Amino acid sequence: MFSKVSLFAGLNNLYDISLNPNFASICGFTERELDSVFEEELEGLDRETIRQWYNGYNWRGEDRVYNPVGILNLFASREIQPYWYQTATPTYLLSLIVNQRVNPLTLDNLEIDESLLAKFDIDMIDLRALMFQSGYLTIAEAKVETGVVRYQLEFPNLEVRSCFNRDLLIHLNQDEQVTSDSANFLLQRLASNDFEAFFNRLRAYLAQVPHQWYDAGNLGQYEPHYAAMLLLTLRAVSADVRVEDASSRGRADMVLFHANQVYVFEFKHVKTTEDSAAALTSALDQMRERGYAEKYLERGERIHLIGIVFDEEGRYVSADRVERFERS
Q1: 0.85 exceeded by the pTM?
Q2: What pLDDT, in 10s, does the model give residues 282-304?
Q3: Does residue 270 contact residue 276 with C-beta atoms inside 8 Å?
Q4: Where do the H-state alpha helices sit in 152-236?
Q5: Pairing between β-strand 302-311 and β-strand 261-270 as defined by DSSP bridges
Q6: What is the mean pLDDT of residues 50-72?
Q7: Residues 65, 245, 113, CA angle at the centre, nearest 5°?
Q8: In whole angstroms, what is the distance from residue 47 CA to residue 32 CA?
Q9: Within 10 Å of residue 274's Cβ, how many Cβ atoms?
Q10: 150 contacts 143 by C-beta, under 8 angstroms
Q11: Is it the case that residue 188 has pLDDT exceeding 60?
Q12: DSSP classification of residue 215
């Protein structure tokens, strides 16, 4: 009895199985379990959509697992909805992201030591560990370096990724309807390759950022914050976007897959407008020379290289250009 009393230490004599591969599937449904147990409930539903929305959680096991809250509610209602996410709003996490000046562009590629991931002291807990322990991030990869286990974390699925990014935008005082309308318009213009309309709307949308945000130090802390705004906006409407997408010779800032086309983005940030032209040339040269788009040639889809330059002094998009990428 006295071993559970916090007289000299916290709760002890417990065996933490959180990252034990033997128990990795204990908190969700595996693909095999879904097929064997829920065969009748799956009839008439799009399996790939279900996988994108509710699968993806991993705790060092061989299998990724489905969120049981999402799956069971789906079977009851027969509609794809963010059932687990709707159980709570992560206001505390959103505030931490802003207060700690975390760039939203990095949320899909966070790394953390095993020792930090297992800490439970709420007064000293790392943001990455807190997002993992609360279910908003999961393990993408485990690496062992000089005897230390490091984990790469990522959003587990489309439900969490899209809803969390939407709420982060709202937390930053963006109007939800304006965000949705702008994102859908931008995607439509990209799909039709109307890049002039795309950039015009992008400039107008980003111009809505009130100057008080800069003065208060909210968005100005992101580097570059406009790129983060574009990412959050696209993800808020469930667009298929990847950040820091690795190739053999580097990483593309952002890659969007939409309407059977691939859009590779490179962002540059300049102090003054006079530097914009050179920065834009550098962005496109970098994408071509480092072969950011080459890995997608086998998809057989149209590929576009998009360079965007953000002007810190003018607080706007100061230069942009799109080039079609083809096999040389």
Answers
A1: no
A2: 999 999 999 999 999 999 999 99
A3: yes
A4: 158-171, 176-191, 195-206, 211-216, 225-236
A5: parallel
A6: 94
A7: 60
A8: 13
A9: 11
A10: yes
A11: yes
A12: H
